[in-house]
């Protein structure tokens, strides 16, 4: 059985979840600041172990991003990612301003596009939207 915990994720668990899917390593200071500045964090537990997570970053009015949607490899294919994504979307809808439109965005790992398409996301570029872009800043 999977249960979900809101807004309680310690640094060690966060870093371990990221390592489990080979995400870019972070320092503990980066991890703490990222967690502290998230709008919402949701962790999936199975058998007392964190098997997945997702968080929302953004302004809660014009744009929100799904960040760090992670499912440990051994827990993938069980619907946990879909449930996390649905709950993250519910949070954004609840937090948004009524009678407005908000962009709900993400950057997905290569090969995961079909998963996100099933959840209503569209790949860019489109006729109206340019390509997503990124820049790495060395600080």
Number of E-state strands: 5
What would you report as the Rg, rounded to the nearest angstrom? 15 Å
Strand content: 25-35%
Q: What's the helical proportion of residues?
A: 25-40%
Gross geometry: globular
Mean pLDDT over the full residue set:
95
Compute the separation of the termini in Å: 42 Å
Number of helices: 4
The largest sheet, given as strand count, sense and whether it forms a barrel, is:
5 strands, mixed
What is the helix/strand order? EHHEEEHEH
What is the SS-derived class?
alpha+beta
Enumerate the strands of the largest sheet in spatial order, edge to edge or round the barrel. 1-2-3-4-5
> Which blocks of ≥5 consecutive residues have pLDDT under 50?
none
Provide a compact summary of the structure:
The chain is α+β, with helices and mostly antiparallel strands and 139 residues long.
Question: Any overview of this molecule?
Answer:
- Helix content is 29%, strand content 25%.
- With 139 residues, it is of the alpha+beta class.
- A five-stranded mixed sheet has the order 1-2-3-4-5.
- A hairpin with a 4-residue loop joins strand 3 (49-58) and strand 4.
- Helix 1 (11-20) crosses helix 2.
- The longest helix is centred in the middle third of the chain and has 16 residues, at 80-95.
- The protein is globular, with a radius of gyration of 15 Å.
- The N and C termini lie far apart (42 Å).
């Amino acid at each position: 059985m999977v249960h979900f915990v809101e807004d309680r994720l310690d640094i060690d668990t966060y870093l371990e979840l990221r390592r489990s899917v080979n995400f870019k390593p972070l320092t503990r200071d980066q991890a703490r600041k990222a967690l502290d500045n998230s709008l919402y964090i949701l962790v999936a537990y199975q058998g007392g172990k964190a098997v997945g997570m997702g968080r929302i970053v953004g302004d809660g009015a014009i744009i929100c991003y799904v960040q760090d949607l992670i499912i440990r490899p051994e827990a993938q294919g069980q619907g946990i990612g879909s449930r996390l994504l649905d709950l993250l979307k519910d949070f954004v809808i609840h937090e948004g301003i009524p009678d407005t439109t908000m962009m709900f965005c993400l950057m997905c790992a290569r090969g995961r596009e079909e998963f996100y398409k099933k959840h209503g996301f569209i790949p860019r570029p489109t006729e109206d939207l340019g390509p997503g872009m990124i820049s790495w800043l060395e600080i």
